[in-house]
User: Fold Alpha-acetolactate decarboxylase from Lacticaseibacillus manihotivorans DSM 13343 = JCM 12514.
Amino acid sequence: MQLYQHGTLANLVPGLFGGTLSIHDLLQHGDTGIGTLSGLDGELIILNGTVFQVNAKGDVRVVDGSEMVPFANVHHADFTPVGELTAVNDAALRERLAQQLISLNVFSSVKLTGTFANVTTRAVAGQKRPYPTLKATAEAQSVFTQAEMHGTIIGYYSPKLFAGVAAPGFHLHFLSDDQQFGGHLLHADVTQANLEIQAFEDLDLHLPLADPEFQALDLDSDQIVSDIELAEK
Assistant:
């Protein structure tokens, strides 16, 4: 089983937000995943081969295949059901998810579908050149909260060893069943939801080699990982 990733989160830290892969090409590598559009424009949730964007106004739309991403994860869904979570608050959620992983040393995808007492998400507004840093955009994000939501949490667990390539730990997005609410997950209290997990033997990391900005980027900094962790909280 393989996880495909275009770009790295480290690329985004200094502001490398320009799209370098089309949605059409991204979907050749999977039907499920998460990401963001060119300019760091909103949050992407990919389910059953359809790509949804949640923008900074909280609006949800289906994304066209010609649109571009600077960063995304996708895989072909082949989840294994592992059980039901009932009455799990946000403080305990990620620990409960981690307990169900095959190993903390491998990339995995988690999918949690059901009813949530409270969900808080965020989305960043699309940025214009010259792009700001990832930290600066995180400080200006829009935050949305809804109660009694039916929907899906989808995302990935990344081992700490790969910090910089991805956000260490869980990187999760949410989409409601009515496709009217979603974004990068900040908080979720689970009422009842079915948990599925998919572990990956292989990571296919695709880098934007033809992009001159990427070629010139200096990512040799200890600050990179701390800025990623701050932006992804």
Observations:
- DSSP finds six helices and 14 strands in the chain.
